[in-house]
Write a structure and sequence with these properties.
By secondary structure, this protein is of the alpha+beta class. It is built from 16 helices and 28 strands. The strands form five sheets. Strands 15, 16, 17, 18, 20, 23, 24 and 27 form an eight-stranded mixed sheet that branches. Strands 6, 7, 10, 11, 14 and 28 form a six-stranded mixed sheet that branches. A five-stranded antiparallel sheet has the order 1-3-2-5-4, with no helix packed on it. β6 and β7 form a beta hairpin. It starts with 11 loop residues before the first helix and ends with a strand. Its main location: membrane. InterPro entries: Glyco_transf_92 (IPR008166). This is Glycosyltransferase family 92 protein.
Length: 742
C-alpha cells in the first residue's frame, strides 16, 4: 500500500477473544477496552498502524476503504479521533493511532480508568473525566520518557485536586453529583492553567506542541489530535523556571477557583478556616483542616511475653491521635493510663503503587515490667483514645507466650501450619478442596482460614474437613470496616488495599507464635514443590535440614514459578472432582527473579513484621541480641508453584514447557479425597457449574485494578464487589463485624 502502511481490520474472532475482559456497559469505554485488549495480543504487537471501523456493538466493520485518506498530514501526529479525515471532525466510530508505547498506554488507561472509577460513586462516571485523566498521565509519562529533569509532574498536581476534593467530602458533605463535578473541574482546571501559562512558561510545555482544549465538557468537541516533538537542545534547561513557583501558581489558582465556585454559599469564617496558608509541599499530604474524627479498628491483642503485648489494628495514616492502655486491677484515673507505641506493620507505611490507600495495618506495642502483676488472672486490657473522658474499651488477650520444655526448647503443638489471607468473594470450591488435600499431604496440621465473604459451599467444605481428627482448622473472621452511610460517614473500606492482607498475615503469625514451628504464607492456588532428589520431596524434612544448617534463620524464602491449568470448572458436585489434570500441565521453564512473587515459610517468634512477598524486620536473638537471619531456598531444591487458570496480567518472558512433576502428587490427592469423600456427606444441590464465568469476572477486575496501581483511588475490594453479575450475592456468606472500634 501507499506510504508503507498496512490496513489491519480486526476480525470478529479477535473481538470475541477479548470481549470477555471488557464488561463495560458504556459504549465508549467498551470500545477503548477492547482495542487495548486486542493490541496486547502478541500477533498485533509493533507490527501495524491501525484503522479500526467499529459498529455500535464494537464489531469491526469490514468494507473497502482507502487507507491513505486516514493518514494524517503531519507525521508527528500519534493519534487522531475523527469521522471525516479531511475535516478531522470527531465521531466515536473511528480511531487512528500509531502503536507506540505511549498511545497504547493512553487507550488502555481510558478503559482502565472507567472500570475502576465506575466502582466509586464519588467520581464522575463519564468519558470526559476519563480522557482528562488519561491526558494528564499521558503527558506526564511523555515528559518523563524524554527527560526526567523536565517532568511536568502532572500527577502531583492531580493529587492536589483530589486532596481538595476530599476536604469537601470530609467537612462540607456535598452531594455526590457536586463532588463528581468538582473532580472534573479539578482535571479541567489543571490543564487550563497549564494551557494559559504556556506562552510565559513555554519550556514546561515543551513536549506538547499542540493540544486543542475545548471549553465545553462535551466529548465530541474535546480534542482532535495530539502531536509530540522532542527537545531540541540541552541548553534549553536554563530556561526552566523553578517548578516550585509553577506548582504554587496552580495551587493558588485552584484554591481560588474552588473557593468562589463551590463554597461561596458557606459562611465566610468557614471559608477562612478551609483555605488557610500552608506549605502544601510538606510530604505532599492533604491539608488537615479540621480535627476530623478518625476511628481506629483493632483486630487482636497478643500477650507476647510476661512484659509485652502487641496489637493488630487498622488506622488512617493522617490520624495522629494517641492510644492509651490501662491494666486490670488499676483505678480509672489518668495516671494509670500509658501510651501505646504505634508502628506501620509492614515497615513501609505506604507501599509502592498504593499511595491512594491511606488506611493501613499498624502494630501497637505495650511494654510494662509489671504486666503480669496487674493482669493476674485477667486476660484483658483497657484501651482509649480520649484520656480525659477515659471511655475504656475492653480488649481480650490471646496468649502467644513461649511454652518451654526441660532442655530449653520450645514445645510446639504443631510442626507445620499455614495462614490463608482473607478470602473475599471466594467461590472456587474445587481449588479449596485441592488446597486441603495438598497441604494435609505435606504434613500441615494447623490451618488458619481468614475470610470476609465466601460462597456457602466453601463453608460446607471447611466444615467437612474440620471432621478430620489429625488436623485443626481455625476460622478467623476478617470483616469489612463498619460505617454509617446514612450519617455521611466516609467509607473507610475504600481506603484499604485488598483487605490489608499483610496485617492479616501478621495477625495469623501472632496466633501461631510459639505454637507452630514453621508457618507457610501462600495463596489458595499455590503449592510448594520439593524436588524428589531433595529429602525425597518432603517439605518438613527440607525445613528441618535447613534449620539445622542455619539455626539462626527466621524464615525460608522460595522463588515462584507459574503453572497453567485447563478450564475444567464446570464440575458441579465434588464427586466429579479429578486432579488428573495436574499430572501433565504447562509451566514456565524459569522461576521469577527475586523478590517478584517469592513466598516465605516463617518461624513466627523470630519475625517482627510481614509483607506478602518481601522480607521485612526480624526479631533479635535473645542470646546474642543480633537480628535473626533468613535462608534463600534455591529453585533446584524447591519452589512456589502458582497454579493459574488464567494468563497473568504481568507479562513474563519465559519459555513454557509441559511437565509431569505433579503426577505422583496429583494421584495421591485423588486417592486421599476419594477415601474421605463418603464421610464428608456433602449436600446434593447448589454446586456450581458456571464457576468459569464467575472467575472471568473476578479475573477481569483483578487485571484492571493491577493496571491502575497508585492512580486516583485505592484498589479496595469495593472496586470488584460491585462488578459481579454472574454470582448470586444471596449465596455469599459475609462475616459480621470483627473489629473493635476505638
Amino acid at each position: 500500500m501507499k506510504h508503507g502502511y498496512d490496513l489491519n481490520l480486526v476480525s470478529e474472532q479477535s473481538y470475541f477473544e477479548t470481549k470477555k475482559y471488557c464488561p463495560h456497559y458504556d459504549f465508549n469505554f467498551k470500545k477503548f477496552c477492547i482495542i487495548s485488549e486486542i493490541l496486547r495480543l502478541s500477533s498485533f504487537t509493533n507490527k501495524y498502524d491501525y484503522v479500526l471501523m467499529l459498529d455500535e456493538n464494537v464489531i469491526v466493520v469490514d468494507y473497502n476503504i482507502k487507507l491513505e485518506s486516514f493518514i494524517p498530514n503531519n507525521p508527528n501526529t500519534h493519534m487522531q479521533l475523527f469521522n471525516n479525515p479531511q475535516t478531522l471532525e470527531f465521531e466515536k466510530n473511528i480511531i487512528f493511532f500509531k502503536p507506540t508505547v505511549l498511545t497504547l498506554t493512553f487507550i488502555a488507561n481510558i478503559a482502565d480508568y472507567f472500570y475502576m472509577i465506575n466502582s466509586n460513586s464519588k467520581y464522575l462516571l463519564n468519558i470526559d473525566s476519563a480522557i482528562w485523566y488519561s491526558i494528564i498521565e499521558f503527558f506526564d509519562k511523555l515528559s518523563n520518557h524524554h527527560n526526567d529533569n523536565r517532568s511536568l509532574n502532572l500527577l502531583r498536581l492531580l493529587k492536589i485536586c483530589i486532596n481538595e476534593l476530599s476536604n469537601f467530602e470530609k467537612y462540607y458533605f456535598y452531594s455526590i453529583e457536586k463532588i463528581k463535578f468538582t473532580h472534573l473541574i479539578c482535571l479541567k482546571q489543571m490543564f487550563l492553567n497549564i494551557y494559559n501559562k504556556r506562552k510565559t512558561q513555554f519550556v514546561l510545555y515543551k513536549y506538547i506542541k499542540y493540544i486543542k482544549i475545548n471549553e465545553s465538557l462535551t466529548l465530541s468537541n474535546f480534542f482532535k489530535c495530539i502531536e509530540t516533538v522532542f527537545p531540541i537542545h540541552k541548553s534549553e534547561n536554563k530556561l526552566l523556571k523553578p517548578f516550585f513557583k509553577y506548582n504554587e501558581y496552580f495551587y493558588n489558582s485552584l484554591k481560588l477557583y474552588l473557593k468562589f465556585n463551590f463554597i461561596k454559599e458557606e459562611k465566610k469564617e468557614n471559608i477562612k478556616n478551609i483555605f488557610y496558608q500552608k506549605n502544601f509541599f510538606d510530604n505532599n499530604k492533604s491539608i488537615n483542616l479540621i480535627n476530623y474524627q478518625y476511628k481506629i479498628y483493632m483486630k487482636s491483642a497478643f500477650l507476647i511475653s510476661n512484659k509485652s503485648i502487641r496489637l493488630s489494628l487498622l488506622k488512617n495514616i493522617d490520624d495522629n491521635s494517641q492510644l492509651y492502655y490501662r491494666l486490670p486491677y488499676t483505678l480509672k484515673i489518668s495516671k494509670n493510663y500509658n501510651k501505646i507505641k504505634l508502628n506501620c506493620q509492614s515497615g513501609s507505611c505506604i507501599e509502592k503503587g498504593l499511595n491512594c490507600c491511606t488506611t493501613i495495618g499498624y502494630v501497637g506495642e505495650i511494654y510494662n515490667k509489671n504486666l503480669l502483676f496487674y493482669l493476674k488472672d485477667k486476660k484483658k486490657i483497657f484501651i482509649t483514645k480520649d484520656i480525659l473522658k477515659m471511655n475504656d474499651i475492653e480488649v481480650p488477650l490471646i496468649d502467644s507466650r513461649i511454652n518451654m520444655i526441660n532442655n530449653d526448647q520450645i514445645l510446639y503443638k504443631h510442626t507445620l501450619g499455614i495462614c490463608v489471607q482473607p478470602m473475599y468473594l471466594y467461590f472456587d470450591y474445587p481449588t479449596i478442596i485441592r488446597f486441603f488435600e495438598n497441604w494435609i499431604l505435606e504434613g500441615v496440621t494447623k490451618f488458619y482460614i481468614y475470610y470476609q465473604s465466601i460462597l456457602d459451599k466453601i463453608i460446607e467444605i471447611i466444615n467437612a474437613y474440620k471432621l478430620e481428627t489429625n488436623i485443626d482448622i481455625e476460622v478467623i473472621y476478617w470483616s469489612k470496616i463498619p460505617y454509617n452511610a446514612k450519617n455521611d460517614d466516609i467509607n473507610p473500606n475504600t481506603k484499604i488495599y485488598r483487605l490489608e492482607a499483610p496485617l492479616a498475615i501478621y495477625d495469623c503469625m501472632q496466633r501461631a507464635r510459639n505454637n507452630i514451628k514453621y508457618v507457610i504464607s501462600a495463596d489458595l492456588d499455590e503449592i510448594i514443590h520439593v524436588n524428589e532428589n531433595i529429602e525425597n520431596g518432603n517439605l518438613i524434612a527440607l525445613l528441618e535440614k535447613e534449620s539445622k544448617n542455619y539455626p539462626n534463620s527466621a524464615l525460608f524464602s522460595f522463588q515462584s514459578r507459574r503453572g497453567y491449568l485447563p478450564m475444567n470448572w464446570g464440575i458441579g458436585h465434588p464427586k466429579n472432582i479429578n486432579f488428573s489434570i495436574f499430572s501433565n500441565l504447562v509451566m514456565d521453564e524459569d522461576v521469577f527473579e527475586r523478590p517478584l512473587y517469592q513466598k516465605n515459610i516463617y518461624r513466627p517468634e523470630r519475625v517482627v513484621s510481614y509483607q506478602i512477598h518481601l522480607i521485612r524486620t526480624l526479631e533479635r536473638n535473645p542470646l546474642t541480641n543480633k537480628r535473626y537471619s533468613f535462608t534463600l531456598i534455591p529453585p533446584s531444591s524447591a519452589f512456589i508453584f502458582h497454579l493459574r487458570r488464567y494468563k497473568d496480567y504481568f507479562f513474563y518472558n519465559s519459555k513454557q514447557v509441559r511437565s509431569t512433576i505433579l503426577k505422583k502428587k496429583s494421584q495421591q490427592w485423588n486417592k486421599n479425597f476419594k477415601d474421605r469423600f463418603n464421610k464428608f456427606n456433602f449436600t446434593n444441590n447448589g454446586w456450581l457449574t458456571n464457576i468459569h464465568y464467575i472467575g472471568l469476572e473476578l479475573e477481569n477486575c483483578r487485571k484492571r485494578v493491577a493496571r491502575t496501581m497508585g492512580k486516583i483511588i485505592c484498589q479496595s475490594i469495593e472496586v470488584c464487589e460491585k462488578k459481579l453479575k454472574t454470582i448470586n450475592s444471596n449465596r455469599l456468606i459475609k462475616t459480621n463485624n470483627s473489629w473493635i472500634i476505638i
